[in-house]
């Protein structure tokens, strides 16, 4: 009973702290005479405005049932419009190139939603390659071969010792020019290589945390080094490395905002563009922060579920 009441007290304290924080943000906006305009933001997330349908050239309008046909003067094939909600011309009207002839009510993703998708895509692809790189170089860090250990150590120290922003510039302007990378590929390569170095150290620490007796027991059962590492050591190491890996994957998603410097329209760059068009900087950046929080929170929740499932199987 006492435990239950202490839990409720904790929840109430948390709620009060959150209310105070929201009140502080609201008060800060009032103190600088800022007028909140959340309504300006919605079209940049999902746009439900009527979409203009324009004539592709000069011609004459013909209505054939529910179809709008424009017989173009400079083309043998007419412009046929099968889907529209509002008609702005009549049968026999003369239209010129660029004229709005009809409107279509159709929702579409705005720049913020599109930027969110780019962030998710570049982060997911980079995560896959980063795990692969980290696993390879993590195994090289604990290998008996001196050349492998030296190569992996050089990779880890070189990447961890230089800023990600500098690496993005090097990959895009130098390596990307030599290998003809587009912006998206250069962003994926830079994020993968950068995160892979940290994953390699996490994998190395996880392997070294397993008692030496596990490897010796596996070898005594007739397994070679590779089999023992694959079937005995790595499964145990992965369980130990899940929490730090979750933190590194979350950092990868946040670090992906830096690819905007090479003109990839991710969530951060989309936010900057929307600010200049909507004149609602606070609303935009709070929304961008909330979307990053949703993505990182979902990843964190998924890894926690996986961690619980793996611990239950022990």
From TrEMBL:
Record-annotated membrane-spanning stretches: 12-29, 116-140, 152-175, 181-200, 221-238, 284-303
GO biological process: amino acid transport
GO molecular function: transmembrane transporter activity
Taxonomic superkingdom: Bacteria
Stored Pfam families: BPD_transp_1
Annotated membrane topology: Multi-pass membrane protein
Residue span, ABC transmembrane type-1 domain: 116-303
InterPro entries: AA_ABC_transptr_permease_3TM, ArtM/GltK/GlnP/TcyL/YhdX-like, MetI-like, MetI-like_sf
rRNA-binding listed as a keyword: no
Compartments it resides in: Cell inner membrane; Cell membrane
Keyword annotations from UniProtKB, A to Z: Amino-acid transport, Cell membrane, Membrane, Transmembrane, Transmembrane helix, Transport
Database matches in PROSITE patterns: ABC_TM1 (PS50928)
An annotated GO cellular component: ATP-binding cassette (ABC) transporter complex
Record-stated family: Belongs to the binding-protein-dependent transport system permease family. HisMQ subfamily.
Main function: Part of the binding-protein-dependent transport system for glutamine; probably responsible for the translocation of the substrate across the membrane.
Protein name, per record: Putative glutamine transport system permease protein GlnP
